[in-house]
């Protein structure tokens, strides 16, 4: 197969409260807020991006915090669980850290790996797994030292309403390889070292519905614009209807919905998050695309104030 994605580019989800999201993903998980911008289709809503020190593809989770959002229900047609990779030997550190913050966790085993599962303040399901692969993050914040810091995505658990069709897309379009089947899940592997392990339910799941606490879409990596064009052609050749190319400022995107109900995006690695502000200060200033800049004062007035802050549990 000529086209093989290296893995996840980013994951985007709905939440309700911006500050609670910042406190959890930066204050508790120690991720860097790498971009503070707005939903280009609804400028009254933030679009917040959290990742490693550089906001590298394969590390970034993004959020639309919408205070009046309905509560979603996780189910078929969604990313059910977002998996983070942490350094080998660090899972006990994270278990103890979550206990300090009063966050309930569950330990499970899947494909002979140990996972620590929990929920964010809106009920979004995440899990941590120790992985050797992937560059260590150089970002430290609060009580999370660099040798324990989240590297990026380990992968994801996809909840499909038609798992055989989802599996076909993963293998025959996205270029993942099926490597195992066990305990009601099939495991697929992409060619990269982060965001590369994808588990899919074997039996169909009842559909979920979108809202706070659910993932809106999962994005896969394209190397550049030329590679992106090849991806769009391949998606179309396989009977799907991809969107036109969309400029998201920090990557270009196409979208299509696979037959298990999950919204897939394919996003380019460049230009990245440092192209419109210094890498050293990413995430500190509200960044707006040129067409919204004349309305900055009005937009800023309508957004709730947020700050990346060390939480009291890390100051005791």
From TrEMBL:
This is Ring-cleaving dioxygenase. The keyword Oxidoreductase applies. GO terms for molecular function: dioxygenase activity. Keywords: Dioxygenase, Oxidoreductase. Residues 7-131, 152-269 form the VOC domain. PANTHER family: RING-CLEAVING DIOXYGENASE MHQE-RELATED (PTHR36110). CDD domains: PcpA_C_like, PcpA_N_like. The keyword Electron transport does not apply. It holds the Pfam family Glyoxalase.
